[in-house]
Amino acid sequence: AQSVTQLDSQVPVFEEAPVELRCNYSSSVSVYLFWYVQYPNQGLQLLLKYLSGSTLVESINGFEAEFNKSQTSFHLRKPSVHISDTAEYFCAVSEQGAQKLVFGQGTRLTINP
Amino acid sequence: EAQVTQNPRYLITVTGKKLTVTCSQNMNHEYMSWYRQDPGLGLRQIYYSMNVEVTDKGDVPEGYKVSRKEKRNFPLILESPSPNQTSLYFCASSFWSGGGSAEAFFGQGTRLTVV
């Protein structure tokens, strides 16, 4: 069965600094990978996803993630964060052939001015 | 506007008093599911449904029931709530992709407290 580990429960950074949120997964079959964002008091929204093709995927608000099959990782990065990026970020995996999403524990990103 | 609507957003109840959390989606999605979110544990799937009258257990189904009589609705039922079911609950829907690739749309969440 697949599993997801987010290595950091909290990540504090200063505004305009770069950030990386780490995600590793475990699965015996091919997977689809997702990052969801949860702003305070809201539901989860899809940030970006890897289904196939280019291993580097980007979101509309400057985040990117790279699928690394050999390291079974899907780390999320942003070169310069903004106060509005303050949220909890969840990495999720879905095995091909199964509709089920398995989530990591979440990483709370806090941006300090 | 495409959305998943949950009600209520907040609920405080007493142990043993049956309750239902409603979930409705307007995207004609086949697949719907319920998750609970607890600190340090992420989201864990409670139940899911692949279509009308087709439901199955997720990872933490004990103490919960669901039904799928219509495509758009997927209520979560707690027959006899207990304090360990105090949590933040999310309903989600997606179209059936044949396995795994479809984006899930989430409701705003229901914060349940059982005293």
Written overview of the protein:
The complex is a heterodimer of chains A (113) and B (115). Chain A has no helices and twelve strands. With 113 residues, chain A is mainly β. In chain A, strands 2, 5, 6, 10, 11 and 12 form a six-stranded mixed beta sheet that branches. Chain A starts with a strand and ends with a strand. Chain B has 115 residues and is mainly beta. Chain B has no helices and eleven strands. Chain B has strands spanning 4-7, 10-13, 19-25, 31-38, 42-51, 54-57, 65-66, 76-78, 87-94, 105-106, 110-114. In chain B, strands 2, 4, 5, 6, 9, 10 and 11 form a seven-stranded mixed beta sheet that branches. In chain B, β4 and β5 form a beta hairpin. The relative contact order of chain B is 0.33. The model of chain B has no long low-confidence stretch (mean pLDDT 95).
Helices and strands in order:
The complex is a heterodimer of chains A (113) and B (115).
Chain A: E1 3-6, E2 10-14, E3 19-21, E4 23-26, E5 31-38, E6 44-50, E7 56-58, E8 64-68, E9 73-78, E10 87-95, E11 102-103, E12 107-112
Parallel strand pairs in A: 2-12
Antiparallel strand pairs in A: 1-4, 3-9, 5-6, 5-10, 7-8, 8-9, 10-11, 10-12
Chain B: E1 4-7, E2 10-13, E3 19-25, E4 31-38, E5 42-51, E6 54-57, E7 65-66, E8 76-78, E9 87-94, E10 105-106, E11 110-114
Parallel strand pairs in B: 2-11
Antiparallel strand pairs in B: 1-3, 3-8, 4-5, 4-9, 5-6, 7-8, 9-10, 9-11
The outline of chain B comes out as globular
Structural class of chain A: mainly beta
The helix content of chain B is under 10%
Strand content of chain A: over 45%
Q: Give me the strand/helix succession of chain A.
A: EEEEEEEEEEEE
Cα(first) to Cα(last) distance of chain B is 36 Å
Outline the low-pLDDT stretches of chain B: none
Helix percentage of chain A: under 10%
Cα shape of chain A: globular
The pLDDT mean of chain A sits at: 94
> Assembly state here?
heterodimer
